Amino acid sequence: MHAKLKRKALINVEKDSDEIQVEIQTSPKKTKPNDMEETSGDIVPSQEMDELGIHAISFAGGTICIFRGTLEALIDGDVATVIAHEVGHIVARHPNEIPQLVSRCKIELEADYIGLLLMASAGYNPRIAVEFWEIISLSNPNFSKGNYPSYEERANSLAQAHVMEQALTIYKEVTPHRPVN
Hints:
The protein is an alpha+beta fold. It has six helices and six strands. The strands form two sheets. A four-stranded antiparallel beta sheet has the order 2-1-6-5. Strands 3-4 form a two-stranded antiparallel sheet. The termini are far apart.
């Protein structure tokens, strides 16, 4: 009997490095669900990793897991938005914080902001992130998940003039050297 193979992305961000390593791995679908387990820096995927939802998660130690649906449903700039957001969590050391002591809304907006600047420095037009959250907001206008910011709030936060101006300045500095889009 052959196991059906699914794709997942594991991204490892070295704490003291300027490089981000992306590795697409193929793994057999789990036959019984289990929680994500972190063992010696690796992430063992649960059955959830094989679902088509648009989702990603970052862990202490610099590992990011991106659900298959994210890779299959989104275009390049949108995937960059999701990855940059998760890298933003790691840069700000959010996975190490105690959730009860920190506002989830504040954490998410901070990761969005850091991710926006990272996207710009990688040569992605930062306006893509705002468009991503606006489109998601239009698709899910009544979405509410605990104390997370709404998609509209995320788009508005990144679209603020001083935030976008900062990101566009970075983008314009790097695009003559390595434009992505």
